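Fig. S4 source data, part A: sequence.
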Amino acid sequence: MKLSTKGRYGARLMLDLALHYGNGPVLLKDIAERQRISEKYLGHLVGPLKAAGLINSSRGARGGYALAKPAKEITLADVIGVLEGETALVECVNKPALCYRAKLCVTREIWAEMSEKMLEVLSSTTLEDMAKRQKQKLQLQPLLYSI
């Protein structure tokens, strides 16, 4: 199983907004530069996130993007759900009618358990949690000086 770039880059976009939460709108070009992601690609991600009520946008000289609610109220499951859709590993987990073997299939039970655990992690991880972890990692970075 592998998250697409939409999910991975969307998580980084939202993390960047969480790190700058409360400081006003953030320009997409600044996020793109910090995260080393194409601004054009990020532009495709903001639409669904805005439609889902996770981010706000504002126009003008002081415009940009900001979280629509506090970082502690947005989970990684919210972000991944908007950008990736269902989080089940295989379709038959959420739609057993698709497979005639669903009631007897042991592997489907395993996929369901794995999907449930993954969703537990995504649902229990907020953008605030991610921002705290990011700040801790940055504090551990050694300072480099060049002359």
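Fig. S4 source data, part B ends here. The chain is about 55% helix and 5% strand.
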